[in-house]
Structure formats: C-alpha cells, structure tokens
Amino acid sequence: MSFSKAYQYLAIFLAFLQLACSDRPDKDKVAEEQTEVRDLPQILESGTLRAIIDNSSTSYFIYKGQPMGFEYELLSRFANEIEVDLEIETVDDLGEMIELLRASRGDVIAANLTVTKERKKLIDYSQPILTTRQILVQRQLQSEDVSKGKLLIESPTELVDKKIYVQKASAFFNRLENLSEEIGGDIEIQEVAGNYTVEQMIEKVAEGEIDYTVADEHVAKINQAHFRNININTALSLEQKVAWGVRKESADLQIAINNWLEKFKRTVDFRVIYLKYYGNTKLFRNRVQDRLFTSRSGKLSDYDEIVKQKADIIGWDWRLITSLIYQESKFNPQARSWVGAQGLMQLMPSTSEEYGLDSSASAAENIEAGIRYLNWIDKQFMERVEDSTERQKFVMAAYNVGLGHVFDAMRLAESRSLNPQKWEKNVAEMLLKKSDPDYYQDSVVYYGYCRGREPYQYVKEIYNRFHDYLNVTQAGDDLVSL
In this structure, are residues 138 and 152 in contact, taking their beta carbons and an 8 Å threshold? Predict the structure, then answer.
C-alpha cells in the first residue's frame, strides 16, 4: 500500500477518534476498546480485507481455474481501492456468517444479503448494492399436471397449507412467517440445513424433489436460464435492499465502503459486472454446464487426476500445484513463452531436456517433470528454510525467477536484521528491492539486478488462488438430506 494513502486513512480515523473521545470521561477505557475492534485502520495495517462470502454461481465460484463472481469482483475492486489484499472465507449458512462477522472472523459479509430489521439489531449494512423482490420458485405445469387439476400458485393467498423449503436464518423464513399472518392461514415452512444454498434449493424444485422454495428475483431469473422448467412469476414481497454487512463497531469501514459504492455504482465497470453475472443468460447457462464449473463438477482443470497422482513426488497439496500450473499456462498444454518455455508448467528447453522431454511430451509428462523440478528446488532450500510450509513460497519464487535471486534476497534479509527463513515482510520484501541499485549493488548480492515485483506477485497470486481453490473444493460437503 502507498504510504500516502494509508496515512490519509489513518489521519482521518485518528481525528475522528480524538473528537469522539473528547467529551467522554473514561478515555483509557475507550482507547482499550478501540484496540480490540478490527475497523478500517486495523485492516489497512494488516494489509488484508477478510470477506465472508457464499459459494454460488453468482456470488463467488471457480470457473476454468479462475475465481469469479459478482460479489467477488466488487470485493476485489474495493480491496484495490483501499490497497489491501482480499482474503475469502466461504460460508453458506447465513446465521454462521453473522456469528463469524460479530466475532471478528471476517470484516464484511458479501453474500446477496437482504437488509432486514432483525439483522439490523446484530449488524450494520453498507448502502444498497441492488434492490430485489422475494419470489416463489415452483415448477411449470406439464400436461399431466393439468389433467390432474394441479394449478400454479399465482398469489400469496394460495400458499395456505403448502410446504415451502427455506433456510431458517434467511429473510425468506421471516417473510413466510409474516405472510402466514397476513393471509390468515398456515404456511408449512420447512427449515433446511444452513449449508444448503438458494441455488441448490432451486435445483431441487426443478428436479421435482420439492415443490416450492423462495429466492431473490435477480438470482431466480438468472438460474431460470439453466433450470428452464421453473416458474418465478409470483412475488412474495415488495422491493428489498441487498447490501454488504459490517460489524456495528466498524463504522470507518462502513463509511469507506459507502463512499466507494457511491462512486463505483455510477461507473460503466459496475454495469458490466452486473450484466456479466445477472444479465447474460447465455453466458450463465454455458458456464454452469461447463465441465470446469467447479461448484458443480468438482474439477479445477482437465488435469486434476494427473496432478493428484504426481503431487506425492513433492508432498504438496495438489491444489497448490494446480494453482501454479494456472499461473504458468492457464491450463493450456500448447502454451509457449517468448523465451521458449513450453507446456502446462512452462519448462525451459534446458530443463525439459534434463528431464527427458521433447516437443512431443504429453501433458502428464510435462506435469511430472515440472513437479520433479519443484522437488529439486525444494531440496536446495531444505537446510536454509526449516519450515516446509514456509519453504513452499521460496521454492515457487525460485521456479519463477531462479535460485540465485532468491538466495540474494535471503542474504539481503539477513544483512538488514530480517528473518531469512520467513517469506512475507522479510525475504519477499528484499526480492522486491532487487530492482533498486542500493540493494542489487550490495556486496551480499551475487546475481545483480532482478525485476523483483514479478516473482513477488507470482507467489502472492498463486497462494491467493490456492485459497480460492480450497474454498470451493471443500464447500458443499456433507449436506443433510431434506
């Protein structure tokens, strides 16, 4: 983060805090409480915005190896605005989301969250991102249904004695309870497990497992592009606001989000993002039907099984290696760089030759050679970096820029009283500095100038994507049967 921008945010916060505390008798207590709250200054200081988000085909998902989603793209834009990294935790249970936020396990909830009076007792909201209505999701009638005298629900008054499946923590549950009072008859509200998403419930309606659920209109409309036998014409509410949730103690974060949204919602970029996820039905249908839509297929790439088999060579999580492959080639086995690196793992000709590969090598052979090369690099660091997890970052940097430059950065770190066995804020910072003459001309540097930002970003992007892969491949397990 640039010093000037961080300083501006901190200065505004300190001025606000001084004003707020000036009329309070117990200033020490207020200061103590402030240190326990993670608000904008703490986020800026940590360099990370922690977002709680749901794994769905609109909010956040992996497609062809790349994290995507409406909420994800907005969060990424906001994190860039305040110059911090974005850290994602996927949670499908709305009640758990709010608990995690209030317990400071996250900074913001971005999960198509409807603004309700009950939730306002627990959390605060950003300004609205969208407005929507709650609608009933039911199946279109077939000829056999008509012959049996079955009718579509066309009015909320027709829901008496009907069984509707929704999450208890959702705004849908509260709306159905109120609606039951309004129509003067009982609606059978069937609570489902918190880890069932709205889209999973829509799918169960489409497949005939249940008859009714409730969804926000914009989510239902885009899902209708895939589940063409659902009817979404019956509204159950007036328009409602969709916003991000923040802790009540995080007033400065709320202000920063609102200021950014005020400007960003007027941009072409916002409109493009909205249409990308909620307006283009053909794109949505193609995406969710693709074998590499991870939320449905469980696959990150066409090479998952190969990577899983070969990962034992080095003992790394296969998803970390997959993230590196995406970084190198975006899963294109024909990829070739301007310096001659080729294949999924972009091996240089000399490295390929060393591992017995030629231009006819298969994807499996390229992956195995790349992992064997990673394993060789790992052994060069084994005595220098004791922690195996920490060492992975050194290995990846060396895979990108070469062993010599990483060794230089380690010596620079040690010469400046930093920890040569720690990557973040230690060796990584020194590698960044290797484009500065004051550093690459230092006597401890043997390999000279290096565009250090490239390997620095390389490692960061691989690990960010790795965490995305973990989020999505671990989500949706152990669903409770209806």
Answer: yes
The pTM score is 0.82
Residue 26: pLDDT above 50? no
Q: How many domains does the chain have?
A: 3
Query: Based on the domain organization, do 228 and 377 belong to the same domain?
Result: no
161 in a structural domain: yes
Predicted confidence (pLDDT) at residue 160 exceeds the cutoff of 80: yes
- For residues 221 and 273, membership in a common domain is answered with no
Q: How far apart are CA 189 and CA 260, in angstroms?
A: 39
CA atoms within 13 A on the CB side of 151: 7
Please state, in angstroms and as integers, the Cα–Cα distance from residue 335 to each residue in 213, 301, 330, 332, following that order. Answer: 46, 15, 8, 5
3-state secondary structure of 112: strand
Question: 36 pLDDT band (50/70/90 cuts)?
Answer: low
| Main-chain dihedrals φ then ψ at residue 411, nearest 5 degrees | -70, -40
Residue 476 lies in a domain: no
Find the CATH number of the domain harbouring 17.
Answer: 3.40.190.10
* Exposed e or buried b per residue across 88-121, where buried means at least 16 C-beta atoms within 10 angstroms of its C-beta: bebbbbbeebbebbeeeebbbbbbbbbbeeebee
Q: 398, 404 in Cβ contact below 8 A? A: no
Sequence-distant (≥ 6) Cβ neighbours of residue 377 within 8 angstroms: 395, 398, 399, 403
Q: What is the gyration radius of the CA atoms in the chain, in angstroms?
A: 26
Phi and psi angles of residue 233, each rounded to the nearest 5 degrees, phi first: -90, -10
Residues facing 114 on adjacent strands: 242
Residues in the chain: 482
Query: Which tens digits make up the pLDDT trace of 73-92?
Result: 999 999 999 999 999 999 98
Indicate whether 347 and 212 sit together in one domain. Answer: no
In the three-class reduction of DSSP (H, G, I as helix; E, B as strand; rest coil), residue 381 is classed as helix
Residue 479 included in any domain: no
Give the helix/strand (H/E) hosting 24: none
User: Which alpha helices (DSSP H) does 207-303 contain, by range?
Assistant: 217-224, 251-264, 268-274, 281-289, 294-297
Give yes or no: residues 182 and 266 share one domain: no
Q: Distance (Å, rounded) from C-alpha 216 to C-alpha 213?
A: 11
Token pair in block for residue 32: 């103590």
Q: How far apart are CA 386 and CA 384, in angstroms?
A: 6
Q: Which two tokens stand for residue 435?
A: 């484009």
Alpha-carbon distance of 321 to 300, in angstroms, equals 11
DSSP 339: T
**Rounded-to-integer distance, Cα 398 and Cα 462, Å:** 13
Retrieve residue 436's tokens: 């500065």
Looking at per-residue confidence, does 19 or 398 come out higher? 398
What single DSSP character describes residue 256? H
